[in-house]
Design goal:
The protein has 11 helices and 10 strands. It has about 280 residues and is an alpha/beta fold. Strands 1-10-9-8-7-6-5-2-3-4 form a 10-stranded mixed β-sheet, with helices on both faces. Helix 1 packs across helix 10, helix 2 packs parallel to helix 11 and helix 9 runs antiparallel to helix 10. The radius of gyration is 17 Å and the shape is globular. The protein starts with a strand and ends with a helix.
Length: about 280
């Protein structure tokens, strides 16, 4: 198991192309949000922007689109289009995220499963994207040969494994799942583990208890999406995003304390986490 450090992240992040433009740095798409869950898509999309994505588009239910239109200044929110148009939009991107604050209904779950089968770019599944897949886990077989990243906390992992859970060996459980389903598994928690289908695994060394608040996972999902969309290899993009997420949390804790810091404070400190690592 590789311990992720500042040096690992520094070596993973490329210098920005001085002749680049917004199309150079990744075009990503997020399907997220529901009535009562407008914060999740805003946090995820802003995290992608803060982590360096050139273009971030966001599909949300029409009922909450006016809220996101106000919340999101740098990303591009729009009402969820019909399925063919949504799939076309996703397949025209460099990476896709499904799930933050998405909610659960039969219609929503069916759409998610159809997208999991058909989306071609790297796909990150978070929150209710994971919950939909957990009830039809064999859908991951349809993605073998395409990059799929799942970001469960312990409760979501329990659902993914049909109640088997983690047991005493977190790394072993994460690697076994990644091998079985041909995906990248980010098992969130203290010393988050990122496991790959070939058996390689990475353990995170940043983060603190102040990050244990609703919304922190949405920020992480957006950061992973961003680095994948910028073209970093998965074994650099995913562990680096996890480390930077924790480092942003550590910077927030240093300035504000663990009690009062918020996921929004993580967003504000992503640029400093990246810059301090690369200096």
């Amino acid at each position: 198991m590789v311990e992720v450090t500042a040096g690992f992240v520094r070596d993973s992040l490329p210098r920005r192309d001085p002749e680049g433009h917004k199309g150079t740095f990744g075009k990503v798409h997020i399907l997220a949000g529901a009535v009562g869950f407008t914060g999740a898509p805003a946090l995820a999309s802003q995290a992608a922007v803060r982590t360096g994505s050139g273009l971030v588009s966001l599909s949300v239910p029409a009922d909450i689109w006016p809220v996101l239109a106000v919340k999101c200044l740098e990303s591009m929110p729009a009402p969820v289009p019909p399925f063919p148009a949504l799939l076309e939009k996703m397949n025209g991107c460099d990476a896709v995220l499904i799930g933050p604050g998405l909610g659960r209904s039969r219609k929503t779950d069916v759409r998610t499963l159809r997208l999991v089968e058909r989306v071609q770019p790297p796909l990150v599944l978070d929150a209710d994207g994971i919950n939909a897949v957990s009830e039809h886990i064999d859908v991951l077989d349809a993605r073998r040969g395409r990059l799929t990243v799942l970001t469960p906390h312990d409760g979501e992992f329990l659902r993914l494994t049909r109640g088997k859970g983690i047991g005493p060996d977190r790394e072993g459980a994460a690697v076994a799942f990644a091998r079985q389903y041909g995906c990248v598994l980010v098992l969130k928690g203290h010393r988050t583990i990122t496991a790959f289908p070939d058996g390689d695994s990475f353990v995170n060394t940043t983060g603190n208890p102040g990050m244990a608040k609703g919304g922190s996972g949405d920020v992480l999902a957006g950061m992973i999406l961003s680095l994948l969309g910028q073209g970093l290899p998965p074994k650099q993009a995913v562990p680096a995003a996890v480390w930077l997420h924790g480092r942003a949390g550590d910077l927030a804790a240093e300035e504000l304390g663990e009690y009062g810091m918020t996921p929004g404070d993580l967003l504000d400190r992503i640029p400093a986490a990246i810059q301090r690592c690369m200096d």
